[in-house]
Amino acid sequence: MWEPISFGSVDVREILSLEYVTDSQIDLIARTGPTCVVTMVTSFTGGEFWASYPDRTSESVFADPDAAGAIKVYGVETEQPCSDLVEVKGFNGGAVALCSDGIHVYSVAEPGWQTVTASPESAIAVAADGSQVMTAADGGTSCDGLRIQSIGLEAAPYESENLACISRGIALSDATLALTGTKAILWSSATVLTSPDQGVTWASVLEN
After folding, report:
1. Rounded to whole angstroms, what are the CA distances from 18 to 29, 67, 101?
2. Mean pLDDT in residue range 12-36
3. What is the pLDDT of residues 67-97, one digit of tens each?
4. Residues 184, 195: Cα–Cα separation, whole Å
5. Best CA proximity match to 27, nearest among 64, 6, 57
6. What is the pLDDT of residues 98-152, one digit of tens each?
7. For a designed S-S bond to 143, which of 34, 66, 147, 208 qualifies (C-beta 3.0 to 4.6 A apart)?
8. What is the rounded distance in angstroms from the CA atom of residue 163 to the CA atom of residue 127?
């Protein structure tokens, strides 16, 4: 069952990004206070208690609300790889951006955006872990629901692999993905699914 949470004394005005780290730790990048200062807000208690950590803001990836067309990648400001950014996610060593013209990956070791695919195939959400980009897309005629794919990042040309078809009334416009270790998480509206094998099999955790 979904329950509202309180940020306590932290005056959160807008959430810019949310990262599931562990079952206990959740990191947010949020605008806070009357002047909407961008800062890291973290819970180490699974969402029960929250505190702001301004010195940790550089530990995240987010579209900079104070600089049009800019993305902060672990403290480094870089231009968006496109004009119509759908979403951007961080991973250990870089970031992945979903645009209508393709999926792009940024490497901290070799700064700059690289196009992984120029055809996102109706992708509506992405996540990455350094070795792969996972996508969730409208299944079209091949999948009556949400199609989960993996794009390997080892070397170009980057090959995609179909992992699963989730045919269970998923609200496509609301879907978002997360990867942590071998675990994948899909959140769409009131539905939360998890995969223990990086997207091959999925089970419902919370569904209202």
Report:
1. 7, 20, 24
2. 93
3. 989 999 999 999 999 988 999 999 888 999 9
4. 5
5. 57
6. 998 889 999 888 888 988 886 666 788 999 987 889 998 888 777 888 889 998 8
7. 147
8. 14
Which domains are present in the chain? Answer: 87-207 (2.130.10.10)
* Residue showing tokens 């579209």: 63
**Which residue in this structure is represented by tokens 């995609």?**
160
Please tell me the predicted confidence (pLDDT) of residue 118.
66
Residues 87, 70: Cα–Cα separation, whole Å:
12
Instruction: Give, in order, the Cα–Cα distances in Å from 165 to each of 44, 74, 146.
Output: 33, 33, 6
Adjacency order of strands within the sheet including 183-188: 176-180, 183-188, 191-195, 203-207
